[in-house]
User: Which sequence fits this backbone?
C-alpha cells in the first residue's frame, strides 16, 4: 500500500462491488466512444487471473479509481486504468501508475506498455507526462485486424534498466 495526499492504493484480490462499479463506469465511458471491436479491456474475470495484479485507489477512504497490470514474459501491460471525474487532478492516476510500475519492477520486467483510444485525450496527456512514449502495436494487438485497432494508440515506458 502507498499513501500520498490522502490516496491509498490497495491490491484487489477479488471482484468486489467497488471493483465492479469502477470497471462498469469505465466500460460505459468507452462504449460511448468506441464500437465493441475497438475496445480491448479485460473482463472482470480476466482481471483476476494469476498473471494480473489489479489495484483499487481510495482517496480519504472512498474508492475513486482503479488500474491493473498484466505481466507477460518480456513486458507488462497496463489494463483497466480509470479515475472517476470527481477525483481527477488529485494525484490518483499518478499513484496508481506508480504502484503499477513498482509491481512491474518487482516482477523483474523493464518495459511497461499500454493501449488507449484516440479519444482518451486526458489519458494520453497523463501517459506522456509520466514518461510514456508512443510505440507500434505490440503483443496480440500487432496480430489484430487493422480495423479493430484503428482507434488505438500504443505507449511504452522503460521502468527498469534499459538493455545495452
Assistant:
Amino acid at each position: 500500500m502507498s499513501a500520498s495526499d490522502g490516496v491509498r492504493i490497495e491490491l484487489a484480490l477479488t471482484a468486489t462491488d467497488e471493483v465492479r462499479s469502477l470497471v462498469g463506469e469505465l466500460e460505459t465511458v468507452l462504449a460511448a466512444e468506441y464500437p465493441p471491436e475497438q475496445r480491448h479491456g479485460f473482463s472482470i474475470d480476466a482481471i483476476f487471473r494469476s498473471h494480473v495484479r489489479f489495484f483499487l485507489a481510495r482517496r480519504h477512504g472512498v474508492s475513486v479509481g482503479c488500474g491493473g497490470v498484466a505481466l507477460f514474459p518480456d513486458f507488462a501491460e497496463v489494463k483497466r486504468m480509470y479515475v472517476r471525474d470527481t477525483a481527477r487532478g488529485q494525484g490518483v492516476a499518478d499513484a496508481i501508475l506508480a504502484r503499477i510500475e513498482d509491481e512491474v519492477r518487482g516482477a523483474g520486467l523493464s518495459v511497461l506498455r499500454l493501449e488507449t483510444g484516440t479519444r482518451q485525450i486526458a489519458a494520453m496527456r497523463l501517459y506522456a507526462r509520466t514518461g510514456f512514449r508512443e510505440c507500434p502495436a505490440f503483443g496480440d494487438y500487432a496480430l489484430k485486424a487493422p480495423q479493430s485497432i484503428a482507434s488505438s494508440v500504443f505507449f511504452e515506458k522503460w521502468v527498469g534498466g534499459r538493455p545495452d
Notes: Residues 17 and 132 are 31 Å apart (CA to CA). The two ends are 33 Å apart (CA to CA). The chain has one domain: 2-158.
